[in-house]
Structure formats: structure tokens, C-alpha cells
Design goal:
Blueprint (H helix, E strand, L loop, with lengths): L6 H5 L3 E5 L4 H13 L5 E6 L7 H9 L5 H6 L7 E5 L11 H10 E6 L10 H20 L6 E4 L11 E2 L10 H8 L4 H10 L21 H14 L17 H25 L6 H19 L4 E2 L2 H8 L3 H7 L8 H16 L5 H32 L2 H9 L1
Length: 399
């Protein structure tokens, strides 16, 4: 049965509060709401000053993103609906000034709480402040909003990795989140009592796993091979080496390969860079890669099954008008094409690369360079073996 709710009509005249507005998901949400729901009243964006830039400067920088080109061309006046609100999701009470807090209470009727840390190497204290306490404080703010119609919380898919199959349900907490926050800070008892009276398990809470359909699921190995194949047609510019990947579950093997294929070459190249008077960077980068891979290893080497029946039903039951702006056919998604478009987007909007022909020519050079280096390395190893009479001994054994 199709839903009778008209999404554009629902948002018409409403003001929305968004946390995590400057993040990847936040930017996409802002663009989609402005483009598909033109009658929205205001979008209040929680932002904090950063690197000497005030919130107004950060908003201007955000809107310079190519993501907003279509709106900038067709409806530039719609950006007037964006209102930056100074605050910080990791601070107590979201770091809101009293006047701004009252403004949100008076005007907002929809909250998108997207702010969170998806780093896997945060300290426990920082993770609690960014994810647990921020959600608590958003809920406290929501309790004061008389016009509130929807509070939507976006979480990482990997929120219950202790379960091999994750359903679209509200799982009971295995630890007391209040106690978790108290461990990281000293909480005011009045606020705690107010919060306790309002956040209990509620059967009206809807959980949707916005994850890939099981029929489209692929393994890390398949994704790796698909990505490498796509890189042949759409190579990166200015690479030092032809991209390749090896997967291993053995930590010792991983450590040895990391030293041989990442750390030692990085030291050599950094040394050459120093000789030319430039600042070395590869060793520092490889340290970051090693730390990141170590933090992500549990997710890369294990698999989970995410049930998404409710999410699929939600999409299937959109009425015709809603499907026009918000629907898509998840069964028609081509994973290879999805990854290809993702790579193109990365090149254009993150790396600012737009010369594909030059990148292809550079890749051809790198292929030949790699072959020459591997031949020279093989000859060098054989020369060492011959000098040590090891090669002759091997030949005597096997010939």
C-alpha cells in the first residue's frame, strides 16, 4: 500500500535543525532538502569555528562545493534559507548559546542528528562525547521543542558488530548509557533526572537499516578486484606506483608486507625527496595507513548480514509523487557502476583531478617503470645469491 504522506508537503513551512552539517552525509542532506523540498522555511546548521574560520566563513566554504552547482545555477536564492548556528556536538548542551538554543526551541519542528565520530581510533572519552553524549543532548533539546514532529538519528551501520545478523529493531542497551557518560564526566543530577523521565524504550521508535540489499552484497575480495579493474580505465594522477592490494588475516605476514612494500619504499622515496629540498611525506602517510588498517581490520576481515526489509518497504511504499523526488530502484543498482561513479566523484571533488588522458599516459609510464624496477630488483637478488654461492647451491640441489 502506498504511503499517503506527501514528503514535500510535510516539509513545507517547517524549519529543520541539522547536526553534522559539514560532514559528508550532512552536505548531501542539505543539498537534497533544498533541491527537492523548495518550500522548507529554514535549515539551522550546527557549526563550530575551525582553524580561524568563523561559522559564516565555513558555510561559504561548504557552499563552494561542486555538490551545490545545480542549486547555484537554478535557485541561488535558496541558500538564504541556511542559518549557521554556533555550537559543538562534542560539548555539553551542544555548546549552544542560550539565545540560539531558544531560537531552535521556538522554530524547529524536525531534527536530523547526523553528527558523530566514525573514527575507530578515538579515545573512549572522545567517542562518548561525540556519539553518546551528543545524542543525549539532542534529545534533551528536542524535549523542549513544542513544534517537534520528527527526531531522526543517523548511526553507523556497524553499531552492533557482536551480532552476525543485524535486524531493523531497537536493541536493548547492554550497558547503562547514563553510567557511560558519567564515567567521562560529572553530570548534573537535575539534567539526568529530566532525561531519565523522557528516554525509555518506545515501540514507536522506527529503525531502518539503510544498507545494501542482500542480493547485491559483495565480499571485500570482490570489491578489491572490481576497484583495481576500474582503476585501469580511470587511473589516478601523479601516482608513485601501480595500485595493488593483498589481503591476509595473518598479522605477522601483514606486518612483514607493510615493512617491505610500504615502510622501506617510503623511507627511500622520502630520502630522495629530501635531497631535492622538498618536505618528506610518505613515511608519515604510511604510518597513518598502518594505524587506519589496524583499526579497521575487524571490519575488513569479518562479514555481517544486515536485514533491510523495513527500509525496502519504506521505499516501495512511496507514492508516485514522492518516488519522483526521493525514490530509486534498489534492485537495478549496478555495483560496478556505483564504484566507478564513486571513483570519478573522488577524482573530481576530493582530489580535484580532471585530466583523464594525462592520468592514462602517466599510468602507462608507471607500468613500464614498475616492470623495469622489478627486473632490476630480481637481478639484484640473483646477484647477491650468486655472490654468496647460494644460487649455485640451489641449482645443484634441483638440477
Amino acid at each position: 500500500m502506498e504511503s499517503s504522506i506527501h514528503i514535500q508537503a510535510f516539509f513545507a513551512g517547517r524549519s529543520i535543525f541539522i547536526t553534522g552539517a559539514t560532514g559528508f552525509m550532512g552536505k548531501v542532506l542539505i543539498e537534497k532538502l533544498l533541491r527537492s523540498c523548495p518550500d522548507i522555511a529554514k535549515l539551522y546548521l550546527l557549526m563550530r569555528p575551525k582553524k580561524g574560520n568563523g561559522i559564516n566563513d565555513r558555510l561559504k566554504k561548504l557552499l563552494n562545493n561542486a555538490l551545490f552547482d545545480k542549486l547555484r545555477t537554478e535557485r541561488p536564492s535558496t541558500f538564504d534559507k541556511l542559518v549557521p548556528v554556533m555550537g559543538d556536538a562534542t560539548s555539553v548542551g551542544l555548546g549552544l548559546l542560550p539565545a540560539d538554543r531558544q531560537m531552535l526551541i521556538d522554530k524547529v519542528s524536525v531534527i536530523f542528528h547526523i553528527a558523530a565520530s566514525v573514527r575507530f581510533d578515538d579515545s573512549l572519552k572522545d567517542a562518548i562525547f561525540a556519539n553518546t553524549r551528543s545524542t543525549r543532548d539532542v534529545c534533551i533539546l528536542a524535549c523542549s521543542m513544542k513544534k517537534l514532529a520528527v527526531l531522526l538519528h543517523v548511526s553507523s551501520t556497524y553499531a552492533h558488530i557482536d551480532k552476525p545478523v543485524i535486524d531493523e529493531v531497537l536493541y536493548p542497551a547492554e550497558v547503562d548509557w547514563r553510567r557511560v557518560i558519567e564515567i567521562a564526566e560529572t553530570i548534573d543530577e537535575h539534567v539526568l533526572k529530566m532525561l531519565t523521565a523522557n528516554i525509555s524504550e518506545d515501540k514507536t521508535v522506527h529503525v531502518y537499516n539503510c544498507s545494501a540489499d542482500q542480493t547485491k552484497a559483495i565480499t571485500i575480495m570482490q570489491m578489491q578486484q572490481m576497484g583495481l579493474d576500474i582503476l585501469k580505465d580511470i587511473p589516478m594522477e601523479n601516482t608513485f606506483w601501480i595500485p595493488n592490494t593483498m589481503l591476509t588475516k595473518n598479522r605477522l605476514v601483514y606486518y612483514i608486507l607493510m615493512l617491505l612494500l610500504h615502510i622501506f619504499p617510503a623511507i627511500c622515496i622520502d630520502t630522495i625527496i629530501k635531497l631535492y629540498g622538498a618536505r618528506p611525506m610518505l613515511l608519515r602517510l604510511q604510518r597513518t595507513v598502518y594505524v587506519s588498517n589496524s583499526a579497521l581490520s575487524h571490519f575488513l576481515l569479518n562479514e555481517w548480514s544486515f536485514k533491510n526489509d523495513k527500509c525496502r518497504d519504506l521505499i516501495d511504499n512511496l507514492n508516485t509523487e514522492n518516488k519522483k523526488y526521493f525514490g530509486y530502484n534498489y534492485m537495478d543498482i549496478n555495483i560496478r557502476e556505483y564504484l566507478r561513479n564513486g571513483l570519478i566523484g573522488t577524482k573530481l571533488y576530493l582530489l580535484h583531478e580532471n585530466n583523464l588522458e594525462a592520468a592514462k599516459l602517466h599510468r602507462k609510464r608507471m607500468v613500464w617503470l614498475q616492470r623495469i624496477i622489478m627486473i632490476m630488483f630480481t637481478i639484484f637478488i640473483l646477484w647477491i645469491l650468486q655472490r654468496k654461492n647460494i644460487l649455485a647451491h640451489i641449482l645443484n640441489v634441483y638440477v
